[in-house]
UniProtKB/TrEMBL annotation:
Protein name stated in the entry: PhoX family protein
Keyword Membrane: no
Pfam families named in the record: PhoX
The UniProt record lists the keyword Signal: yes
Protein source organism: Streptomyces luteolifulvus
Lineage of the species this protein comes from: Bacteria, Bacillati, Actinomycetota, Actinomycetes, Kitasatosporales
Amino acid sequence: MPVNGRSTRRQMLARTGALGVSIAFAGSLSELFAGTAAAQTLGRRGYGPLVPDPNGLLDLPEGFRYQVLSREGDRLRSGEGRVPSHHDGMAAFAARSGGPRGRVHLVRNHENRVDAAIPVPAVEGLTYDPAGKGGCTVLTLDGRNTVLSERVALAGTAVNCAGGPTPWGTWLSCEETEDKAGTNGHTKDHGFVFEVDPANPRRTGAVPLTAMGRFQHEAVAVDPRRGIVYETEDAFLKPFGLFYRFLPDRPLGGTGSLRAGGRLQAMRVPGVPDLSSVQETGARFDGIEWVDVPDPLASGTPVRLQDFGRRGITHAQKLEGCYWGGRSVYFVSSFAHSADGSAADHYGQVWRYDPAARRLTLVVVFGPDTDLQLPGESPDNICLAPSGGLMVCEDGSGAQHVFGVTRRGEVYALARNRQAITSTATEAGGTPEEPEWGEFAGVTFSPDGRTMYVNCYTPGTTFAVTGPWRG
């Protein structure tokens, strides 16, 4: 997720405290919430201004409160080592057995590279490559969000960024890398998807789902009716990433079924080689094509560079979040910069693909800031809230936010990283800088809809946010 980016005017304003949080937002919100019954009456407005946190961690609206569930460097309750660095994608699952009702398994990615300060501890039976520093951990919580256990669920992987839940209650963890064996000290090829059973990680082990492709994975979403898995590729530099679908040989076969293999395809939008060239919300493209990937394992050439035939394939910069809603899959392009080679500039798009109609629609466009006429920060992880709203993790510079988006197209701040404000302010004043937190990541809700869980990327911190959620 983090990008080695350029210094921006937004970043400089953040350091002086002059930056507002309002961002422009255009699009058809009814489409985003089509799959949630609550969206018909709820999620229509925000929760009021953010109240500064006296503890200097997380600003929330009045009536909301947070708990710190886990911090990088603390001891894992399992005794396997320390809580790893770089908290990223996340999902919450109801614990269906082994305790009272209301328990939750919270599975969390760690986007660790070779230089990670605290790697995911290697655990026998759960480690893919002993040289890999990434993986997943699982927190088990009671009905009051008290942490009952915290343990390793997957180790020996690399750059575990996002992923997505399956209809059968497992987590698909995605490696955002294309390192091959012998690169960065790795002993095995990387760039795969791994399945994690949050209730019993040893049931799934550390087995790469190789048929789903080897590329810079970001997020996935599963069609609950057909079992097709949609995948985004986060490629910052040209050639940019692709949007994929995986047609499993055993669709909806339950835990382990994706190991049976299948066919990987990439999306072609006729006449549109680069999605950034589309600027108007509501723009619609029918007759979407899916082209077989020549070499899903990218044994010689990265997938996005392979030969997809005379008509080519459709690329997009920074494809990130992905989720299923109603009868469609939605995916995010965080930004596009013409200076990087994109066809046009934008500050965030949300696309909707309707498989039944084979139709792609540009639903939402973010930015620029309405108050300062600056680029709105890039949307990253994204999820539907039980109240019918959309929650978006901001990935940019300075103060970071979790934004809510209402059905009327209003954008409001639900959470703000207070420590990031402090660090940039002290830097501007010439005093020693406190550690700056990275972006928010992994926003998700408990199965009962009463708690929002979210990570700060660095130093890795997992929060539980409760309050007067509507609905």
